[in-house]
Write a structure and sequence with these properties.
Among the domains are: about 30-110, no CATH class; about 115-205, Lambda Exonuclease, Chain A (Alpha-Beta Complex). The protein has helices spanning about 5-15, 15-25, 35-55, 60-75, 90-110, 165-170, 170-185, 210-225, 260-275, and strands at about 1-5, 115-125, 130-145, 150-155, 190-195, 200-205. It is globular and about 65 Å long. Strands 1, 2, 3, 4, 5 and 6 form a 6-stranded mixed sheet that branches. It has about 290 residues and is an alpha/beta fold. Helix 1 (about 5-15) packs across helix 2 (about 15-25), helix 3 packs across helix 4 and helix 3 (about 35-55) packs parallel to helix 5 (about 90-110). Helices cover about 45% and strands about 15% of the residues. The chain has 9 helices and 6 strands; from the N terminus they run E-H-H-H-H-H-E-E-E-H-H-E-E-H-H.
Length: about 290
């Protein structure tokens, strides 16, 4: 069984070469962390801590939440952090996180909305006896007793705000809703909720069971494409600027360090020997 995730599949669609380096060759990233990833992690951890305290019967003050955020920022900081935008400093990103949490706290206090769990791990079964599974983590799961809905909440710290059409086609939270329906009942309504913190705005979407069945088929088709992929070309887009493997990418005239090139060549030779045994005599042994 191979375990997939939304991000793993999205990586394949974004750039097959990046996918190969990260998930097949398992080449360590030359970039330890990006500033956007650091901001997202610190905000997520602060909100997770907030709701955990509320579940314990405590209500942290806004200052408590901000202190938690600053401490998390300091503890997770790395010196070689990637900052792509030249006109923005690390302190600017840190300040943005403070504003996100202030806006969120004021808007949602006292945070008693039926939260069940934070960072809940879910497994998505795509079909009976299907050899592959999907794993995911829900930022926050809520059971709204007034509406009877289960709410899947996801926090976003991105600058851009996509269109409603894009949310209605989003795969990630829709896949998570499959797992929630498996757990609580297929007839249970599930509301997908995104918190775009940079805009202090919530966006909602829903899926029918028929739509979720179609999504399962689409994902299984994509997984089969991944499983049978033989070539992994680069794909240059604006997202390359934030790719942790850019300094290793041949599309930008870069090369992998020698030790990883040797590793790739060994894997390549092993694959040839396995698929074409008669060709083994033409491959030089190490």
């Amino acid at each position: 069984m191979t375990v997939y995730s939304h991000s793993k599949l999205a990586s394949f669609e974004q750039c097959r070469y990046k996918y190969k380096l990260k998930y097949i060759d398992k080449v360590p990233s030359p970039v330890e962390k990006s500033i956007e990833a650091h901001l997202g992690t610190c905000v997520h951890d602060s909100l997770e801590w907030l709701y955990t305290e509320v579940q314990k019967g405590n209500l942290p003050t806004l200052d408590d939440v901000l202190e938690k955020y600053v401490l998390t920022w300091q503890e997770g900081w790395v010196e070689n952090i990637l900052i792509v935008k030249t006109n923005v400093t690390a302190e600017d990103y840190k300040t943005k996180g403070v504003q996100f949490l202030i806006d969120y706290y004021i808007k949602h206090q006292p945070f008693k909305d039926g939260t069940i769990s934070m960072e809940e791990k879910v497994w998505v079964d795509l079909a009976r006896d299907y050899p592959h599974k999907l794993i995911g983590y829900i930022d926050r799961l809520v059971h709204n007793k007034e509406t009877g809905e289960y709410e899947i909440h996801d926090y976003k710290t991105a600058n851009s705000l996509p269109s409603q059409e894009k949310f209605d086609k989003d795969r990630q939270l829709a896949l998570y809703s499959i797992a929630i329906k498996e757990k609580y009942g297929k007839d249970k309504p599930v509301l997908l909720t995104w918190h775009y913190l940079n805009h202090n705005k919530q966006i909602f979407s829903k899926r029918t069971n028929e739509q979720l069945d179609e999504l399962k088929k689409e994902i299984m088709e994509l997984i089969e494409t991944v499983e049978h992929a033989k070539i992994f070309p680069t794909q240059k887009t604006i997202l390359c600027n934030w790719c942790e493997y850019k300094t290793y990418c041949k599309a930008f005239g870069n090369k992998l360090p020698e030790k990883y090139r040797e590793q790739q060549m060994k894997l390549f030779k092993d694959e040839i020997k396995e698929e074409y045994p008669s060709a083994s005599k033409y491959i030089k042994s190490e």
